[in-house]
Amino acid sequence: MNSYEFLENSRREIVALETLLTSIPAIAPEGGGDGEEKKCRALQAWLSENGFDKNGCTIERYEAPDSRVSAGVRPSLVVTIPGVDDSQRVWVMAHLDVVPVGDPKLWNTDPWTVVEKDGKIYGRGVEDNQQGLCSAAFAALYFIKNGIKPAHTIKLLFVADEENGSVYGAIWLVKNTDLFKKTDLFLIPDGGDSQGCEIEIAEKNLMWLQLHVMGKQTHGSRPDSGANACLAACALAVRLHDLEKVFNKRDSLFTPDYSTFQPTKREKNVDSVNIIPGEDTFYMDCRILPCYSVSEVFAKVEEVCRETEKEFGVKIECKAPHCSESPATPVTAPVAQKLAESIKKVHGIEPKFIGIGGGTVAAELRREGIDAVVWSTLDDQAHQPNEYCVIDNLIKDAQTLIEFFAN
After folding, report:
1. Which candidate, 40, 52, 22, places its Cα nearest to that of 161?
2. What is the pLDDT of residues 121-178, one digit of tens each?
3. To 5 degrees, how large is the angle CA 373–CA 379–CA 383?
4. Where does the pLDDT of residue 372 fall: very low under 50, low under 70, confident under 90, or very high at 90 and above?
5. Sign of CA dihedral 128, 131, 136, 138
6. pTM of this prediction?
């Protein structure tokens, strides 16, 4: 039986697995949930029932301690299917957790009960990230059920805590285990486009800024007797935004193709319109092309702060509460080329390598010197009400993964 026939014959089983996983909310404590334990146990039972722990295949469980959840741990699973060559193992990583449903009134169906309609299945998590999870599981199942030994050892990784920063998932595994080797190939089926042609190989560097401006409060009628922290903060926000003209290189890998410096959140300052505030705090979201380091950008930010202090007679505290930077996976990397060839063969399209402004867990692997790519065929339903997965997309992705594993 070829891979297409196997997956088409498995359509009901694929929907059944999606249905099972959706019925068990796996929401982090940050979202008011109790973590991934119940969903992980259900998935592990399904994997065992389908032979993922027989004939040399194994299922291993890794637990990151977390006292906030009733289980006391945030579990991740590693499935191993031995291949002809174990020197360069092929990993696919999907995540177990999902985001909360948001406003339930915006849903047309029960978010935790899969509804199938017009070739789609609806429910929280069916696309993000159960499409990737199920496509990986059924691609590996093809080798198990047909007694085929893959060219390279297959590793399926189903992790916790992706939706809230991966501290109890991928990051914990990187820091506390020796699971990963620099020779490994890593595919993360958690981002893409509706045609399945975009392979993400790079991310912009990320820097969040907190700017606390301290002036002198006074009456609205006497600005001369104070130092307007709000006015200074507004000027500072514009000047920091204008750093787009300083760090002005372009890179067509990304959309937009330039570094962005955007004012976002602002904290409350005073309670009345007729009070000139003595303090004002705001935040910036900065997405920086990889050709610039976070440290050189932050040095320029501090320079702008000092100039603003002098002009407005204020003091400014500048912090970067969150920063992230990682190298790109080269277009020539084996994982990128291997995936591109698989997409060409199965989808019949020319893949496109891209970079993104958002952050993914791939950055954690790239920082460790492991080449990783992010790819899937998605309608981009993540975190939306009435989230759906196109069943044909899931099957096509599984077929692509079979090709990816086979060579």
Report:
1. 40
2. 999 999 999 999 999 999 999 999 999 999 999 999 999 999 998 999 999 999 999 9
3. 85
4. very high
5. positive
6. 0.89
Q: What is the SS3 assignment for 107?
A: coil
CA distance 128 to 112: 14
> Residue 371 above 90 pLDDT?
yes
The DSSP code for 72 is S
Left if phi > 0, otherwise alpha if psi is -120 to 50, otherwise beta: which for 27? beta
Rounded-to-5 percentages of helix, strand, coil across the chain: 35, 25, 40
d(CA 102, CA 215): 39
- Please, is 332 exposed, middle or buried when counting C-beta atoms within 10 Å of its C-beta (0-12, 13-18, 19+)? exposed
Reading the block at residue 139, the tokens are 């691609």
- For position 240, what pLDDT does the model report? 98
The residues, ordered by sequence, that sit 6+ positions from 66 with a Cβ below 8 Å of its Cβ are 29, 35, 72, 73, 74, 168
Average pLDDT over residues 40-60: 98
Measure the CA–CA gap between 126 and 72, rounded to whole angstroms: 26
> What DSSP assignment string belongs to 143-199?
HHHTTPPPSEEEEEEEES-GGGTSTTTHHHHHHH-----TT-EEEE-S--BTTS-EE
Inform me whether the pLDDT recorded for 1 exceeds 80: no
Q: What is the pLDDT of residue 407?
A: 83
Residue with tokens 């399209």: 349
Tell me the β-bridge partners of 58.
80
Name the token pair of 292: 């610039």
The DSSP bridge partners found for residue 193 are 377
Report pLDDT for 381: 87
How many angstroms separate the Cα of 292 from the Cα of each of 202, 204, 213, 287, 368?
14, 9, 26, 10, 20
What average pLDDT is seen over the chain? Answer: 96
**Other CB atoms closer than 10 Å to residue 397's CB: what's the count?**
29
Q: 21, 130 in Cβ contact below 8 A?
A: yes
- Residue 404 burial class via C-beta count within 10 angstroms: exposed 0-12, middle 13-18, buried 19 and up: buried
Q: Which residues contact 174 (CB under 8 A, 6 or more apart)?
A: 180, 364, 365, 368
Question: Which of 395, 404, 290, 389 minimizes the C-alpha distance to 345?
Answer: 404
DSSP state of 329: P
Residues taking part in catalysis: 97, 162
* 199: nearest Cα among 64, 6, 340: 340
pLDDT for res 292: 97
